[in-house]
Design goal:
Helix content is 32%, strand content 19%. By secondary structure, it is of the alpha/beta class. It has a five-stranded parallel beta sheet, with helices on both faces.
Length: 177
């Protein structure tokens, strides 16, 4: 299975990336092809809602790093959204990329599966992000392979001392397809 992981954390080597790398380790051990995109290192502007993509076979009018993201999602079987929680939802970096997936709204997706991995300092802050993810999956007909939430990430590297990385590894290792 071809999997694209969108890491929405702007922090290089932070808790979200540690969680993502654990997921990738498990998935690649199962033989899956995984592509990680660190959105914090990319220039992805917000969607302009111009719908240029609708009349140009999914090509976006904006010339930025979203082109790479769209090319990787073409032909992908699964997409994984990973993010720290900022003010009860995903990071701006991930939200911009999700909005720009709109370029494939008319063209369509090959994606059949999705997963969501979130971390935060506090517990009880995930509802908005989970609701948006579940609504997206329902609307697009994607089957959710799992939702992982890891609270208690009070400092960079805290993921190493939690069960979060292990759970992410198990999520990746458990993928069949």
């Amino acid at each position: 299975m071809k999997i694209v992981v969108l890491n929405g954390s702007p922090r290089k080597g932070g808790n979200t990336e540690l969680m993502v790398d654990s997921f990738i380790k498990g998935a690649t051990e199962q033989g899956h092809e995984v592509h990680k995109i660190n959105l914090g290192e990319k220039k992805v502007a917000p969607c302009l809602a111009c719908e240029y993509c609708f009349s140009h076979d999914g090509v976006c009018v904006q010339k930025d790093d979203m082109k790479e993201v769209l090319e990787l999602t073409d032909g992908a079987d699964m997409i994984v959204f990973a993010s720290p929680i900022y003010w009860f939802t995903v990071s701006a970096q991930l939200k911009a990329a999700i909005d720009r997936l709109y370029a494939r709204a008319r063209k369509g997706f090959t994606i059949r599966y999705a997963a969501l991995m979130l971390d935060s300092m506090s517990d009880g802050v995930y509802k908005s992000a989970i609701d948006a993810y579940e609504d997206t999956c329902n609307y697009l007909g994607w089957k959710s392979k799992g939702i992982l939430t890891v609270p208690g990430m009070s400092a960079k590297g805290a993921m190493k001392d939690s069960r979060g990385a292990e759970k992410a590894y198990e999520l990746g290792k458990g993928l069949i397809g």
